[in-house]
Amino acid sequence: MNQREAVIVAYGRSAVTKAYKGGFSTVHPVTYGAETLKGVLAKIPQLDPKEIDDVIVGCANPEGTQGWNMARLITQMAGLPKETAAQTVNRFCSSGLQTIATAANAVIANQCDVVVAGGVESMTRIKNMFLEPEFRNPALVAAYEEAYMAPGYTAERVAALHHISRTEMDELAVRSHALAAIAQDAGAFDDQIIPITTTAPDGTTKVIDKDEGIRRGTSLDSLAQLKPSFEGIVTAGNSSQMSDGASFVVVMSREKADALGIAPIARFVGFAVAGCESELMGLGPIYAVPKVLKRTGMSLEQIDTIELNEAFAAQAIPCIRTLGFDMGKVNPEGGALALGHPLGATGAILTCKALSRLRRQGGRYAMITMCIGGGMGAAGIFEML
Asked: 379 forms bridges with which residues in the sheet?
């Protein structure tokens, strides 16, 4: 019996907005999550929502405003049938990529025919970027306190270990903003972004359809003026921005796509996760990328575009160097230093970016990879069809 193929037939994302003061800061994440989902499903009218077996939503902070199973709430807000099941997944920064892999695996295993996967995050509503001491396990703290280390401090550890200078980090940030600005001006993100109309408390409406984090004219001189954020050389300028956003892809079996008359966009090739020291969590891709290449029987030379999440320049640089990435292939339209990192949504957003670029520029294979809070890395590979 031949293994079933899992294919992506539609993708889309919201614009990525600034946390606290951006376009989604006063909008409930269930609302812009639902609007993004509806926009993606509208791209494939051949699919009856009743045929969706599951909706899997990544969310790195599924509590408070983002609690009570965000996935189920988003499907209800989007008007999907009550029969549509939904689950929320948390693998921190790779949650949105994990959901796509989980969806693909369910299709390949013949447990589902159609699964919607993606992620959402409102960093506006995250009270703390670390677990408060009162909630930590005392025995684990005594045995391995670094298990609870906040990401910013891990970035300082990585920078020190790999002898990364602040100038190198700021240079990557300048590159990220410049490339993102060029891409935005060229309309590179237009096919990805689902325009969402928001209503302010005073009743005024606004269409959110542009990424807000890009700082045009960012220079080494301007970044040099920023003070360190974590008692070292990591600053707000060479760290990913706190952002709000959502993204979804529709995964189905090749047979189902053919039956519905939907042309597949890409094929899921493989996915891998790997662990590392919590205090060096930014190095996760160094362990996950070789693992996915080995499992898929592929080589790095075959990959045409690489979306490496720029959680911090401090960790992106050693990952690029250690893995031997070709910088011409890495984040060619900017990364999270410019576009932001809405945690649970990022994996799906990067997938949209990669597939969109390959559709426009040509190429066959895309890799999505990122570090993960707590000391992990994830990597996935997709093939354009």
From this structure: 272, 369
